[in-house]
Amino acid sequence: MANKEEERGFLRGLQTYGDRDFSIYMRRAFARSMGYSGDELARPVVGIAFTHSRFNPCHRHFPELLEAVKRGVTAAGGLALEFPTISLHESTLAPNSMKFRNLMAMDTEEMIRAQPMDAVVLMGGCDKTVPAQLMGAASAGKPAIQLIGGPQMTSRYKDDRVGACTDCRKFWTQFRAGNLGKAEIEAVEGRLVTTAGTCAVMGTASTMAAIAEALGMTLPGTAAIPAVHADRLRAAEATGTRAVALAKSDLTPDKIITAGAVENAARVLLALGGSTNGVIHLAAIAGRAGVKLDLERLNELSDTTPVLVAVKPVGTEFYMEDFFAAGGIGAVLRELKPLLNLDCMTITGETLGQRLSAEEGAYVDRRVIKPASTPLEPQGGLVALFGSLAPDGAIIKRSAATPALFEKTGRAIVFSSLDDLGARIDDPTLDVTADDFLILQNAGPRSTAAMPEAGFLPIPRKLLEAGVKDMVRISDARMSGTAYGTIVLHVAPEAAAGGPLALVRTGDRIRLSVKERRLDLLVDEAELARRRSGSTRGAEVPLRGYDKLFRQSVLQAPDGCDFDFLRRQP
Ligand code: FES
């Protein structure tokens, strides 16, 4: 048996040659080839999950950030060893990045566990990377600290201040409606993303950064620092320094990602009016810690959590750089303090309550972050709906929707797939009015589309040209955190898993009531039974590799779309 000292640092987790001393000798021999001295190899080892990739524009500044992390590790007496993992970007993955979040989580988990490191710094930013890293680290069971890449800065297009990607959608809608020409939309394309970092609004990436800080997995005050700000480099260095202390501790993620911390993160998600994707990712992270994010409980939290942050797409003026300057997540947490579980441990070794007490009186820009006494909205931005169309739940982001459409019964206009949607949505002969509900089937996690961000169904061109700005849209898909509209998402069970969504036909009546938290298909049970018995599933395409693993193992949205075999049993 190796003694305690040998089980740490670079001699952790030796290969099983059947001769322990030979294993040590071999590992040292190869380490020497990298030029490390015996002194360096005896230090606590901090692994750095490095997700730089030329396919990931949001992480283009990570090499500079890595140097700062390593500086912090070295100064604190550790040995910094970066290692590559999968990196995921929203616009460069087909069919969509969500399909690969679990693959990245598995990669991260296994490399943390298998390689000889005492603690790990997780460098993430773009939408799926932070949840994948937190999921993996929670399962790997070694001390871990998240370093966020940070949001982009805004740019200009003529008189408009612009940033990805709420503005991407605004300009595209104008182009579709014929109010913007081809030359103009091409010029806009060159102005939307002009610095390194993640989308400049409170989209999924910024929401997940906030959730990571609310969980206690980042250094305080670091979630919202812009990617190109010097404070981002200082945060990276401090994260490296803290990782060395973690390497000597037993402060593993399961001691931080507790039921209380998950509720704190859900409160922050609601107070931001954050991305609907945040519900899925938080459920998945919590699931790795054996905690269930219950949608009924989410509604209870939503009823008692005010919306405080006026950053796009909830507000119309401010971006993430304004949110950072306004006080960031710390200011939001202080407003929510009476609602939070303050005894939760954080990565610094302090409780959340101790952190917030130390920050009392810090500056807050009230144009961007409202006081709890006079919030933007008295209740949370996200609501779970249940009913005969969504027995296991669905999500609507009411803070980015049109209140006039909240209590409404409408006629269903059904699209059976993304291909069907693309083929017919702009057909001038499509029988559709602004009072109808657009329904998209077969875009959930088990569908061939693998739950894309397609829930923001385009408004039919002829209605757009007539000035229609919003209508009710319902699907089992997801929606970008930067999108807006009266959009019901994540309907569960999904159509491809035999949920009631698969039984909806054009002309059916559907009732939406945000007040009652209901989503009902107004078709009698005898007719639904007839449709059910008459439905035929298309022939299954033979699958192999990750496609097969994904289709066989992916869970529904309320369980975070994690793989069934990766969740920890509560
Ligand atoms: Fe990376 Fe938006 S595409 S955060």
Short description:
The chain has helices at 20-32, 38-41, 62-75, 98-114, 129-140, 166-176, 182-189, 204-215, 230-247, 259-272, 277-288, 295-303, 320-326, 328-335, 352-358, 418-424, 461-465, 525-534, 545-553; strands at 45-50, 79-84, 119-124, 144-148, 155-157, 160-162, 382-387, 390-397, 407-415, 437-440, 473-475, 487-492, 509-513, 518-521. With 570 residues, the chain is of the alpha/beta class.
Write a concise keyword list for the protein shown above.
eight-stranded mixed β-sheet; alpha/beta; Rossmann fold; 14 strands; Glucose Oxidase, domain 1; 19 helices; globular; binds FE2/S2 (inorganic) cluster; 570 residues; 3 domains; four-stranded parallel β-sheet
Description of the structure:
The chain is of the alpha/beta class and 570 residues long. It has three domains: 43-153 and 195-358, 3-Layer(aba) Sandwich (Rossmann fold); 155-189, no CATH class; 382-535, Glucose Oxidase, domain 1 (3-Layer(bba) Sandwich). Helices cover 35% and strands 13% of the residues. α8 runs antiparallel to α10 (259-272). The longest helix has 18 residues, at 230-247. The protein is globular, with a radius of gyration of 24 Å. FE2/S2 (inorganic) cluster (FES) is lined by residues 58, 89-90, 126-127, 198-199, 203, 205.
